[in-house]
Design a protein that fits this description.
By secondary structure, the protein is mainly β. 11% of the residues lie in helices and 32% in strands. The chain contains four helices and 21 strands. Strands 1, 15, 16, 17, 18, 19, 20 and 21 form an eight-stranded antiparallel sheet that branches. Strand 16 and strand 17 form a beta hairpin. The N and C termini lie far apart (60 Å). Bound molecules: 3,6-anhydro-alpha-L-galactopyranose (AAL). The site of 3,6-anhydro-alpha-L-galactopyranose has 10 residues, from strand 7 and strand 11. 3,6-anhydro-alpha-L-galactopyranose binds next to strand 7 and strand 11. Keywords: Hydrolase, Signal. It comes from Novipirellula artificiosorum.
Length: 415
């Protein structure tokens, strides 16, 4: 009898032994037996099928634009979202045509730009196919006359279509660009994508109160429409600088009038990382591509209400300053479909504020309407040139420092 009871007990135990090994066929539901913290995260935070099953994960593949190639002393950067109106694609961007390349903020003059986005206007280009582009002969929106805010440079536009009219929001600098200078966002409007554009006298967004996170600059205005309201996302910067202060975070402001006033979210900043903004409707919420800076750099995030975001994926080589072609950015359908391509900028010599930029096209799969397996891949690997390029290869001064520290840091493995 005792033997029988023991055998029964063993048999009852058996299933739990077999359950204890995590199966090769990944369970769709979170297992109800104990799992490690990492496996729990696969279900609680990620997706049991990793990035393959994640609509907000993608790689990005780049193509130079025909018609907007690099030309000395001409810079094009920070494109808006791309619109498709009556069969023609439209984009607006920071355009600089100056006598010289940027010379740095200290040496800037009335005709020599300090940074890549100094002495700039808002330019417009159009395309029939999204690959070949034609730039207008003149800027779409010119700097306003002195002493109006923005007489030195207007740059980094964001486009909104609202009730059949077009609105461009942009950074407005006067007198200087670069460093800790006052930068509100101005707005110009037009009845058609080809203009003419009218400057509105009042700023659409101004920096936040002294002592707060965005007290000197509001950058990268990025409008979307969600739940009947206009939301403008932006990067803020405080006047104070130093390791204890906010470097780069993003906030949002709401209005039902494109000319404002916009009311800043009480929860700002709503994104703790990122550099240029890129926000788009996704399902019934709002998604953001967050790149370059901060602890959540190079992620895609999603929020049901536009104010409370969570990380949905981690991405590699994200587009810089992306302006996606996102047809439902302003339709407020409650069912945002995402996007498959857009424009971004590249610094041909690797970056920095004093270098010229070109616009480029990126393709991806951040769309609910396609399934492009090659864009869902992991394990991207790069060639020798990538690792040994400027800014990635170890520079001489760091090698000297490392050699000095090596004397005390590299101690015997076995002592
Ligand atoms: C960009 C944007 C803003 C910054 C500068 C010009 O890529 O983040 O516009 O001010 O760089």
């Amino acid at each position: 009898m005792r033997r029988l009871i023991l055998l029964l007990a063993l048999l009852l135990e058996l299933p739990s032994f077999s359950r204890a090994e995590f199966p090769a066929l990944v369970p769709q539901e979170k297992p109800d037996y104990p799992v490690s913290a990492a496996v729990a995260r696969l279900y609680d935070q990620w997706n049991p099928h990793e990035d393959r099953g994640n609509e907000l994960y993608s790689n990005f593949k780049y193509t130079p634009l025909k018609g907007l190639e690099l030309t000395p002393n001409i810079s094009r950067r920070d494109p808006t979202k791309v619109l498709l109106i009556d069969g023609v694609y439209h984009v607006w961007y920071t355009g600089r045509r100056s006598q010289s390349a940027p010379v740095g903020v200290q040496d800037a003059t009335d005709v020599k730009p300090g940074t890549d986005w100094d002495l700039a206007d808002i330019w417009h280009a159009s395309s029939k196919d999204g690959w070949n582009w034609v730039e207008d002969k003149e800027p779409a929106v010119r700097r306003p006359p002195k002493p109006e805010q923005g007489f030195r440079s207007i740059c980094t536009p964001g486009i909104l279509v609202w009730k059949g009219k077009y609105y461009l929001y942009f950074q407005a600098y006067s007198p200087m660009v670069g460093g800790q200078v006052w930068c509100p966002v101005r707005v110009a409007s037009a009845d058609t994508p080809d203009g003419p554009w009218r400057h509105h006298p009042d700023p659409a967004l101004v920096p936040s109160p002294p002592g707060s996170w965005g007290s000197i600059k509001i950058n990268d205005p990025c409008p979307v429409v969600h739940h009947g309201r206009i939301l403008i996302y932006y990067k803020g910067a405080p006047i104070e600088r130093g390791p204890e202060y906010v470097l780069r975070m993003q906030g949002v402001a709401f209005s039902d009038n494109p000319l404002g006033p916009f009311e800043a979210s009480k929860l700002n900043p709503v994104i703790n990382s990122g550099h240029e903004t890129c926000v788009f409707p996704f399902k019934d919420g709002v998604a953001a591509l967050v790149a370059l800076d901060g602890p959540e750099k190079n992620t895609i995030q999603w929020s049901p209400d536009g104010e409370n975001f969570r990380v949905m994926s981690m991405i590699q080589i994200p587009p810089i300053a992306p302006g996606p072609y996102c047809p439902d950015a302003f339709s407020d359908s409650g069912d945002g479909r995402g996007f498959t391509w857009g424009l971004c900028h590249i610094n041909p010599d690797g970056g920095g504020a004093a270098n010229e930029s070109i616009l480029a096209r990126f393709d991806c799969d951040l769309s609910l309407d396609v399934n492009r397996e090659s864009f869902k891949r992991n394990n991207l690997r790069f060639d020798e040139q990538t690792y040994l390029q400027k800014d990635v290869a170890l520079p001489r001064f760091l090698k000297d420092l490392i050699l000095k520290e090596q004397k005390t840091l590299d101690i015997e493995t076995i002592r």
